[in-house]
User: Fold these one by one.
Assistant:
Number 1:
Amino acid sequence: MNRKMSRREALRWMAMAATASLVACQNRNINRSTTTESPTQADTRLPDPTVTEQPVSPTPGATGTTQPVDPTPDQAYLSVARGEDTAAITETALRALGGIERFVKNGYDVIIKPNICADNYPYEYGATTNPIVVATLVRLALGAGARQVRVMDFPFGGTSESAYAKSGIADAVHAAGGQMEVMNPNKYRLAGIPEGESLTQCMIYQDVLNCDLLIDVPTAKDHRLARVTAGCKNLLGIIRDRGAIHANMAQRIPDLVSLVRPGLTVIDAVRTLMAHGPTGGNLDDVKINNTVIASHDVVAADSYATGLFNLTGADIPYIVNAAERGLGRMNLSGLKIEEASL
């Protein structure tokens, strides 16, 4: 039956439509499909003109503000495991560090941040993190008593759903009992970076700052701007404006790391994209290394990973700056490093 809409109903309908339009616009901006990462000259020391809120600090004691747990004398500072069984080498690398129980406590809210940069190719092309590595960490964390384990990234190519599916990570995570989370544009908050030298504030996904444990799970690969990308640069997937970081990676990646310190970094070097990164597209560029690198120290893990490309940490400016600022160890001499081959 047709009836005339009241003024109150009309106003309510108009408000609902405006809200839906705003959310759709935000989602288009967050998931806009591109084929490459384009640097921008945006000065993020100044507030985003679209943001009216003041910078907030992470919850005290959250992953973003606390130091990663240092190893005890019987635990490795950094571990490397090699072998054809990806799940087994991931578990072996964790065991040398003291096991997942060193990092995950009963009731923890755990976020795993892999590299799911685009929906161009499956993980065999080396641009996205190996799904078996991610699923193994989900299973181990849940086994250690985690309340929930969420896996997320902010792709720059394709939608989150399409990238999650194409990488193979969505199916693997669901099978392991974890949750794939599409990063909600309404959950980004303007956060101050107290130790930032070039980047002093940016829009960061609030759950990453407030979770009990952030596990950083990049894939080691070539990058046309950074030369090598691994754990430190993988954190760009938790902020809204990656272009601002690309404008000055040498300083701004360490700035971000100074705020967001992963409790555990696990680098997938099973299939390594040696050229034409970050998205690749040619299997001839992929080298089979069947390796997993793990540490509580993201800078040390990255420094070790540069060796896969016949480089050292000293060849990568953001690693050098991060080490000089005391965010981790670039020089690995004297550290307890355990290597295992299965």
Number 2:
Amino acid sequence: MPAQPSIPSSAHLVVIGGGAAGFFCAVNAARMHPGLQVTILEKSNKLLAKVRISGGGRCNTTHALFDLPELVRKYPRGQHFIKKAFHWFSTQDTIDWFAERGVRLHTEADGRMFPETNQSQTIIQCLLREADNYRVRVLLQTEVTGILPGKEGRFRIQTSRDVNKQPEASLLQADYICVACGGLPKSTMFAWLQELGHSIEAPVPSLFTFNMPGHPITALMGLSVERATVKVTGTKLVESGPLLITHWGMSGPVILRLSAWGARILSEKQYAFGIQVNWLPDYREQDLRNDWVSYRDTYAGQKIGNRNPFGLPSRLWLFLLQLSEISPDTRWAEITAKSQNRLIGYLTAHPFDVKGKTTFKEEFVTCGGIRLTEVDPNTFQSRIVPGLFFAGEVLDVDGITGGFNFQHAWTSGWIAAKNIASR
């Protein structure tokens, strides 16, 4: 990597982080103010890494949710803060921004929006073209280790580059800084921001799957249920949605949403807790008991293994029959009261013990970050350090799965860019 050239006298914005929020801030600031010099610092050797893998490599760019009160309810943390921000740049603005650059998004049945190509590379290439068009400079493998006050209100940015080999590259000067380094998994990793006077809400994982080591249900790995309701025992945490059984336990949107809303509670439990799964979310236990008589009468002479009136996957139905000690060859009219009660219990309140979590690699998100009271939601500028801005997951804002975290990235990056460029 060549040595950093000397900084020209024109204003300089340094964006820390080469992810979605950082790139969006950089390219928009450079576009809005052509005289502004913009540099992105990325500590790894990859740009837009999460964009690349999101949505199974398709990039879940945003979510087709346009009602603001409903949209903000998709964020377990930061609802009041993000509501103000969405007034400046929301879902339709994201759709329009990409469309103006030749990238159209399509909406799937569940509301998730992807590029029409169904390839994350389409989003990446769009952002890289913008960076090239507006001469945004990118430095890879450059980790920021400190931010110091400089002369005349400027900042001095300390980086991990080799001071002996590249002395002029280890310290950059900037008039404005946008911190968009993503979620940091440990509080100690925020030290360089705490030294500026900022407070940190302790980070814990969000969007993770539930481990059930050794549980027989893992033999059904790969099986998905279109809709189930999952409740964390002893809490008010409950969600409904698609559920996927994996070789380590349970995943799918319902589990990921539950992990997001329960991020702090489940962390406090050290990821050892109980859940109840209702495989028939339209039924409560007593309602199913009341209707059971009609099912018995309707299917009286049929074998229960062949006649599943609830639309459950066959493998799951047979698994539940086995747990209830009911032979698949048993006719509906011959089921004993004890076995019937056991099956109804499993169908509406199936208990499981969760022991551990697995990070959902595609959408790894942390709960926690820069305390929101210290940031202006209308500008994303620090209330403590003038000229310092934040964007993306470094803030204590996180959404459930479905494109909501990317929407926050676009929104925060655009607002920070607009307010930097307007200066």
